Each structure stands twice: as C-alpha cells, then as structure tokens.
Amino acid sequence: MDFRDAWDRAMKQTEIVRPRIQPLQTFDKTLLPYIFLAESAVNAGDTVVRKGEVTVEKPSLLLPPNLPLFEGFESDHASKSDLDTLADFLLVRGVRFPSMNYHNKTESVDVREGKLGEAVGHYERELQRAENVSTGLVIGPEDCWPFSVMVYIGSAVLRSAENDIRRLWERYREEH
C-alpha cells in the first residue's frame, strides 16, 4: 500500500470517538495521548489496541511555513526515509500542519479479545470514569494507523486554533 492509498483509507475510515477535550498549549509543548482501536487483520473478531502519545512542540530550528516534522509514525508501509517526504505528500493534497515537531511514541500495542464495538465501549467508559480530558479515542484501519493518528492531531490543532489566536493576541497586547 502506498501513501496515497493509506491516506485515502484513513480519511474515509478514521473516526474520532472521543476527542481531546483539554485545549492544546499555545506557547509550550503539548502531549496528545491517544488510544487507537482497529479491527485485527490477523485475529478476526479481535481488536488491536495501540496506546501512544504525540508530543507537539516548537522546533529547535526555525522552519518555513507549512513544513512540519513527523517522527515516530513509521509503519509497515512508511519507513523513516518515507516520513521525510510526508510533509510534501500532505501539502500537495492541501493538508497543512503548523510548522512544529510532531513526535509519536507508541507505548503499547496489544490485541484485545472481542469486537471493535465492545472495545470502544470499554475505553469510553474507562476514560469517562477516570475523568480523562486529555486522551483521545480514535478508530481506524489497522494498517493505516499513522494517518489516523495524524487525522486526530489535525483535528486537535484545528479545534485549538481560535484559542491560540486569542492567546497570541493577548500576549501581543501585554508586550506592546
């Protein structure tokens, strides 16, 4: 599967069941924990549970606009060298991420017995019970998980944009 096929499948099949409620940090790094669920391609009727966290932070070097850096999103069809062209791939399709570092760290990948719907209900209840407002719950194709996680990140960035603009404006007014 190439980038285009994986991206198209992820765009069609990714569902953000429970978005991150807590806003992103405007001036500091933000940790975006997630639980990604997918129907197992190997064990029919079971669910793959991928838990991870994406760190979004300002790059140490100034980057041109719309040139994000992605790390830790390697998969069976996306190697480290492929990630170098990922920003260009997304840009050509009109997908723009702010020029930040996006570093994914997968904490665990497990197989949970039972259907995807049961796993979704279990993790929704678990997050609700823990009053966890920072972890997102995402469903998507197992083999396209990097792109599904990017969809999740993009939605969090988009939802925080208005708040970020307000904070930038407030900081500007305080300094001038």
Can you put this structure into words, describing what you see?
The model has no long low-confidence stretch (mean pLDDT 81). The protein is of the alpha/beta class and 176 residues long. The protein has one domain (3-175). Helix 1 crosses helix 5 (145-175). The chain has helices spanning 3-13, 80-83, 86-92, 116-129, 145-175; strands at 15-18, 30-39, 47-57, 69-71, 101-112, 136-139. The chain contains 5 helices and 6 strands. The chain is globular, with a radius of gyration of 17 Å. The longest helix is centred in the C-terminal third of the chain and has 31 residues, at 145-175. Strand 2 and strand 3 form a beta hairpin. It has a 6-stranded mixed beta sheet, with helices on both faces.
* Large-scale geometry: globular
- Roughly how many Å apart are the termini? 52 Å
How many β-strands, per DSSP?
Answer: 6
Into which percentage range does the β-strand content fall? 25-35%
Largest sheet: 6 strands, mixed
C-alpha-based Rg, rounded = 17 Å
How many structural domains in the coordinates? 1
- Helix-strand topology string: HEEEEHHEHEH
Overall mean pLDDT stands at 81
Q: Supply the number of helical segments.
A: 5
> Which spans have pLDDT < 50 for at least 5 consecutive residues?
none
Instruction: Look at the helices and sheets and give the structural class.
Output: alpha/beta
Spatial sequence of strands, sheet with the most strands: 1-6-2-3-5-4
- Helical content stands at 25-40%
